[in-house]
Specification:
Elements (H helix, E strand, L loop, with lengths): L9 E5 L14 E5 L17 H26 L7 E4 L3 H9 L4 E4 L4 H15 L15
Parallel strand pairs: 1-2, 3-4
Helix pairs in contact: 1-2
């Protein structure tokens, strides 16, 4: 919707869940954040299966790389960005945007059922159901 109304759209994403290049919409800019952050720091597994702790760790590990990427973008772009649209789970990115004076629009991307998934996540990790084996590959980007 934003792009259709003439706004430039930049998508920041981590390396482990990067959109497939062939499926990226034309006219959007994609910026990988934290490519040097070890995958084990971002994907909840084993003793890191607690989803809430995993979100805190993701925010912690990606905050500085995101700030570097956003600063670089702000230097390159003409004019101030309209806003940063960010997932409500990524509090660290909200803090960075505030620190750099970028307005934010925070979206809650999950529904009420998401709470049940959060609560089940540690048990699913303990049983070996999550994360799916072979799903995450840092070299697949």
């Amino acid at each position: 919707v934003l792009h259709a109304r003439g706004l430039r759209v930049t998508v920041f994403h981590s390396a482990f869940n990067a959109p497939e290049p062939a499926r990226r919409p034309a006219g959007y800019r994609f910026v990988t954040v934290g490519a040097s952050v070890p995958l084990a720091d971002l994907v909840p597994t084993g003793s890191h299966g607690n989803f809430a702790e995993a979100l805190l760790r993701i925010n912690e590990r990606l905050e500085a790389p995101f700030e570097d990427s956003l600063r670089e973008l702000l230097l390159e772009e003409e004019g101030a960005p309209a806003c940063l649209v960010v997932d409500s789970n990524l509090r660290g990115m909200q803090v960075v945007a505030h620190r750099l004076g970028v307005p934010t629009l925070v979206l809650r991307t999950g529904a009420a059922a998401c709470l049940l998934a959060y609560m089940a996540f540690p048990a699913l990790c303990d049983k070996g159901v999550l994360p799916p084996q072979g799903t995450y590959s840092p070299t697949s980007t």
